[in-house]
Amino acid sequence: MLESIQLVKSFGDVTAVRGVSLVIKPGEIVGLVGASGSGKSTMLNLLAGLVDATEGTVKLNGERVKGPSEQLVPGHPHIKLVHQEYQLMPNVSIRENIAYSLRFYEKRYQDYRIDQLIGLCRLEAVQHRLPRQVSGGEKQRTAIARAIAEKPAVLLLDEPFSHLDLPNRELIRGMLLDLVRHEKTACLFVTHDSTDALSIPSRIGILQDGHLVQLGAPMDVYRRPYNAYVAQMTGPANLIRAKHLPLMGIIHAYQPNALACVRPEQIRLSDRGRFGGTVRNVFFKGAFIEVEVEMNRFVNLTFLAPSSEKIKVGQLVGLEMSPEAVHWMRGSAS
Ligand SMILES: Nc1ncnc2c1ncn2[C@@H]1O[C@H](COP(=O)(O)OP(=O)(O)OP(=O)(O)O)[C@@H](O)[C@H]1O
């Protein structure tokens, strides 16, 4: 079990991480989401023991993880961090890159484990090629195979999906889930992509200016975001001031400036709709369309409809939603 207790990291005047407490259990995947500069990479480096914390502690199975100033070789043997740039050795094959992590083991075990990792990471076809002769997705899988070779207790991944096309993302996603299940690794990955953040982990944490503002099951965080930032980091969101909601048929007891979040899929087309507006944009998304509607000078709404729905820009549409679709949040939107 990896634990961060009230972690703080300052670089001079800049405080990148502000009192983050988090537990990752064996066999669990946690996704850490945040805007650029919110402290995600700093958090990974702290958890890996690669930078010294200004305050607070990281513990692995109850034992404190030392920072780089306390040891000759920075890092921890049971905590592996996979960087965005993969950092493979360029002049040896994919197989030898993986083998390097196992060089201190007996040859028979090495061969057995490399074959196992190559199978798990689906690298059979490219194992004898050099890193420059394989795709980005294959490099990413090699970096992961190398990191997990010695069965680390913790696997930390920096933006593991950011450079990958959809088939490779799905491959790595499946591989990570298999890995965590079979080897009971505690895994944390950082991302700024809401789809990856919601679909893969058992829990999702949202970093805002170095604070962990919300942590929970993806569905709970998506449905009940703590503030506007969390709502926007976890998917498309209509952020609506309380004073505009009565126009949409929602009666409530909130202050005029209180802010509500309504997810686009909660708003439906309706001939008998209590509100509506003029269609400003229609975006085809495959299985559905995303439609932007100007309700009035102050309120623009986005809703989803089946792709089969014929909606044109400039058209007037009627809409409806139930009062349960409205989630009240902290904070304000500009
Ligand atoms: N070595 C450093 N020296 C000074 N400031 C730093 C250092 N590393 C990070 N920072 C600052 O700390 C804050 C958090 O940076 P961090 O790289 O952790 O964010 P991030 O969420 O990973 O961003 P991105 O998604 O863009 O990689 C930023 O304001 C950054 O400029």
UniProtKB/TrEMBL annotation:
Q: Which UniProt keywords apply?
A: ATP-binding, Nucleotide-binding, Transport
Q: Which GO terms describe its molecular function?
A: ATP binding; ATP hydrolysis activity; transmembrane transporter activity
GO cellular component terms listed in the entry, alphabetical order: ATP-binding cassette (ABC) transporter complex
Q: Name one Pfam family in it.
A: TOBE_2
Which SUPFAM superfamilies does the UniProt record give? MOP-like, P-loop containing nucleoside triphosphate hydrolases
PROSITE patterns to which the protein is assigned, alphabetical: ABC_TRANSPORTER_2
Check the record and name the InterPro entries matching this protein.
AAA+_ATPase, ABC_SmlMolc_Importer, ABC_transporter-like_ATP-bd, Mo/tungstate-bd_C_term_dom, P-loop_NTPase, Transp-assoc_OB_typ2
Q: Domain ABC transporter, which positions?
A: 2-234
The protein in question is named ABC transporter ATP-binding protein
